[in-house]
Design goal:
elongated, 15 helices, about 30% strand, nine-stranded mixed β-sheet, five-stranded mixed β-sheet, alpha+beta
């Protein structure tokens, strides 16, 4: 049976309903319908969930980004997953720029690895431990220092194999006593952790600074103001550590810092280098607990500031803690042996989504930065029952798709107010509004979510503005 090329352009040809040995053809329309709200899965709610205590948790549930499946464990719904993947990609790109090499380690680890380092019994009840059917002791990894050390130890023998930094982005599990605040303090979470291997302390310092820079750039690209804070090393070990805190009024930690940190510009962070590190590390910043230990603060009172912060990253330099305890050695340049010096560098990828919302929201909902917005444009057809509005909206949608502009098209038969509320709630950077009154004058309306600024443009002008960024 013949079919015209035009008829097959937007369709896929299948055969079914076989009867008497003959196949009856049917067609499935493959026009871009998946990003139309009438066909999308976006379970938004008007009510604030009773168990949600902080803004990000409330908005993530209301905007249909996640759903809790057990205490501290969440399913990532389509809109939330799109944001999560974009955050992950920004993190990945900056790790790659820093010279780190990506791999993927499993979520389940053998207890024997942790016994080698001496951490199996010391880590605490946050580690989820279990036995498999062969009675082997296993754990759901809360971190990967032991595993990456074993992998690198078995493959590396010479100083020529150093330095190296390896990273992965993987789900982790920590059995929090009181999981709360949604993805900010969950039990299962997506994390980027990197591990550096160097021959000596000088090499470790260079690797540490490279990651310091990568973190500054990462958070700046995500539209966040992050402060590097001197921090205790805790169970990870070592004697040098920094946390990175996103400044937000709803932050869980009190952060003290030198007011000069406020003079560091967004552009400086995006292009951070060694001089930026020198400038930042000379400026005093620490959490409240450490601040109390110090007593007399080294910053003049008129320059001391205190803000709330959300921890989104943590870096450690712990030297030979794991390489020595796990018997990892390499041949040095003199022919002897040495334990490589190691560092560990973590970013809470899923936690970052909550931090972005905490820092960027208003009474209407989320305000996504363009770098991680699930869609760049929300196209609103104000009158689904109006043929002119429907036709114009369909054409705009097709042209935006063709131009590579990620667009979520609200083609539902709903009131305009409900559509505006949904778009404000989910926080797409731009809203393109098509209504019958505007079309009578040959214009559509473009709204910038971050400022609420509205502008009337011709159809061509609106397309040009959105296509060119």
């Amino acid at each position: 049976m013949a079919a015209s090329a035009a008829g097959l352009k937007n369709r896929s040809h299948f055969f079914g309903n076989c009867s008497r040995g003959r196949a009856t053809p049917f067609f499935v329309d493959l026009k871009p319908t998946l990003m139309r709200l009438s066909r999308y899965f976006l379970p938004v709610t008007k009510e604030t969930p009773a168990d949600a205590q902080i803004v990000s948790h409330k908005l993530m549930l209301r905007a249909g980004l996640v759903r809790q499946t057990a205490a501290g464990i969440y399913a990532w719904l389509p809109l939330g997953l799109r944001v999560l993947k974009k955050i992950e990609q920004v993190v990945r790109e900056e790790q790659d720029k820093a010279g780190a090499i990506e791999l993927l380690m499993p979520t389940i680890q053998a207890a024997d690895l942790w016994r080698e380092s001496g951490r199996y019994d010391a880590y605490g009840p946050e580690m989820l431990r279990f036995t498999d059917r062969h009675e082997r002791e296993m754990l759901y990894g809360p971190t990967n220092e032991e595993m990456i050390t074993a992998i690198f130890r078995d493959a590396t023998k010479s100083y020529r194999d150093l330095p190296r930094t390896l990273y992965h982005i993987q789900w982790k599990f920590r059995d929090e006593v009181r999981p709360r605040f949604g993805v900010m303090r969950g039990r299962e979470f997506l994390m980027k952790d990197a591990y550096s291997f160097d021959l000596d302390e000088a090499g470790l310092k260079a690797s540490y600074e490279a990651m310091f820079v990568a973190y500054l750039r990462t958070f700046a690209r995500l539209g966040l103001q992050a402060v590097p804070v001197r921090a205790p090393t805790g169970p990870i070990g070592g004697n040098l550590s920094h946390e990175f805190h996103v400044l937000a009024e709803t932050g869980e930690s009190a952060v003290f810092y030198d007011a000069a940190l406020e003079d560091v510009t967004h552009e400086e962070l995006l292009t951070a280098d060694a001089s930026t590190i020198a400038r930042l590390t000379d400026l005093y910043a620490m959490e409240a607990e450490e601040h109390e230990k110090v007593g007399e603060c080294p910053v003049p009172p008129d320059r001391l500031r205190s803000r709330r912060g959300i921890e989104v990253g943590h870096i450690f330099a712990f030297g030979t803690k794991y390489s020595a305890s796990m018997g990892m050695t390499v041949q040095n340049k003199e022919g002897g042996s040495a334990h490589p010096h190691m560092g560990s560098y973590g970013i809470g990828v899923s936690r970052l989504m909550g931090a972005i919302i905490e820092a960027r929201h208003d009474n209407g909902g989320i305000i996504w930065p363009e770098a991680v917005a699930p869609f760049r444009v929300g196209l609103i057809n104000m009158r689904a029952d109006d043929a002119g509005c429907a036709s114009t909206s369909d054409n705009l949608y097709a042209q935006l798709q063709q131009a590579g502009v990620e667009t979520l098209y609200d083609d539902r038969d709903e009131r305009g107010g409900a559509k505006f509320a949904t778009m404000d709630l989910i926080g797409l950077p731009w809203q393109l509004i098509v209504g019958p009154r505007g079309l009578e004058r040959g214009v559509v309306e473009l709204k910038k979510r971050a400022t609420g600024e509205r502008e009337e443009l011709s159809l061509e002008g609106a397309l040009a503005r959105l296509s060119l960024g």
